[in-house]
Amino acid sequence: MMKLLLLLLIGIFAISEAYKLKKTYEGNSFFDGFYFFTQSDPTHGVVRYVDKGTAHNMGLIKVENGKVKISSDSKNKYGGNDGRPSVRIHSNEKFNEGLFLYDLEHMPVGPGTWPAYWFCGSNWPNNGEIDVLEGVDGNIYNSQTLHTNQNCYMPLDASIFKGHWGKGPGGKISNDCYVNAAGESPNQGCSIQSENDLYGVPFNKGKGGVFAFEWNRESSIKIWIFKRNAIPEDIRSVILFFIFTKFLQI
Asked: Where is the secretion signal located (predicted)?
């Protein structure tokens, strides 16, 4: 039985081990590190993912004053069965552990939106999925979730994190990470929901913040969310998206 620990922590950020900068995604070179997913939506949503050239020509991707902007088409109207042109990017490089920092100033909000920041193995769900940032529509809380094969659970000690457990049908705590777990919605996984100002409109009003994700395959998965006015000094120099790791790439 495999037991993983997912933590949502908001407060002082301390790193007990030294990290060195491995990879940076920022500014004009940001999109060089990603490829554009253009296949049908695996979750069967009404969306049309476009390639880099199309996204650029439609104004869905741009870099202004060093800030990367990614959006869907909000200018044109589409029929109920027509997918709205949108952007989904996957990193070219793979990582197997490390500390990942994501500086986000603004996220999409409103009906039909689904901003997300995921880490996925190539053989889903056997190699797992870690959702650092995710929500839909008018949510004001962020969901941190693990999706795995069988025999992966999270501890029940809610005193070690802020926020609250996600729940399945009938109010059952969703601490079984298996995508087909009994008593949970299909592909619900094990999830912790943040406090009610770390996603959506409240998050944007505060000029966003930093998502810090520490992944240690031998011990734990930890996630911190720092509001813009509470980012620790040791990560204030982050421009957009740095990856710090002391481990080798896959």
From this structure: 1-18
In this structure, the number of other CB atoms found within 10 A of the CB of residue 42 comes to 9
Interior angle at CA 205, CA 130 and CA 69, nearest 5: 60
Residues marked as catalytic = 129, 134
Shared domain for 51 and 129, answered yes or no, is no
pTM of the model: 0.87
For the chain, what is the domain count?
2
Strands (E) in 126-216, as ranges, are: 129-134, 143-147, 152-153, 164-165, 190-193, 209-216
Q: Residues of 155-183 as b/e, b for ≥16 C-beta within 10 angstroms?
A: eeeeeebbbebbebeeebbbbbbbbebee
- Domain around 185: 2-37+98-244
* Candidate from 13-22, 88-97, 106-115 with smallest mean pLDDT: 13-22
Q: Calculate mean pLDDT across residues 29-38.
A: 96
Let me know whether 157 and 207 are in one domain.
yes
The mean pLDDT of the chain is 86
The domain that contains 181 carries what CATH number? 2.60.120.200
Same domain, 176 and 67: no
